[in-house]
Input
Amino acid sequence: MKQFRQIRNFIVVGSMVFVLFGSLPGFASSIDSKKYSRVIWNYLETLCAYGPRNPGSEGYRETLALIRRVGANYADQVVEHPFSVRTSKSSSMDMVNLELRFNGTEGGAPILIGAHFDTRPFAEEDLNPENWSAPILGANDGGSGTAVLLGLAQYLSQHPVARPVHLVFFDGEDFGGKDSGLKLLGSTFYAQQLIQVEKEKWPYWVLVIDMVGDKDLQIFKETFSLKGSSSFLDKIYDVARGQGAQSFKESVKYTIYDDHYPFHRMGIPSTVLIDFDYPYWHTLADTLDKCSIENMFSVFSVVAKTIEGL
Ligand SMILES: [Zn+2]
Output
């Protein structure tokens, strides 16, 4: 009997703790961490198994097919935005942004969450000059953001939020050489398309996720993000603090021209979450072993909880 009472007390206390923590905003108890860490990591492994995913490569085509499959399985609607880029006087290249749309339960202006799925066609920062013309694998740069977005697609199909969420996989972020002007191609095209759309339909907020896989993850606040989206940045960092996500650093460090910039320039609140302190950036050493399943999940979890409260 005594034993029974002890067990019963344990159950009562246990469920009180659950109710208490389960109702706190920002607490990650409702996200199945084991399941979704696996989901995200599997996507990253799959992307890396495709090899480099620069435009025109086999890995690039396989990545598009993967995003389309995930979209068909989980999204309410998949929208393709094909465009062509003039790469020299005599040649051009076909590219495409893929958008997975989730309607949300209450409607309103959508939250746009973006990541570039292309990887850099050349490893110009590699320590060995012989590698400078080889395409990078981009486990972190290209892979990590794409894997988090694919995980979000799966999650949002089960856990819709109030606003519509548009997951946009941008092409051509990392395409051209330093002074070519051929960067941020997909996001620039997407932002230009918005000019033809009524402002009421513009994104409520643009959140770009890039290079979030690093084992030593440190996400500092970025200058354009702070200037144009400080209240959203506060929300992200509040959630991160609530979840004990150590990789979110409160100070400002870099000014970065990433896929959020074309939207920032239009006056749309736009944020990039990025760890730019990555020694393997644009080298052949940007491989899966440099990435952390826990860190990627922590970013996923912070983003999922942040958009739940918008
Ligand atoms: Zn890059």
Notes: The pocket of zinc ion is lined by residues 120, 141, 174, 282 (CB under 6 Å). The chain has one domain: 30-308.
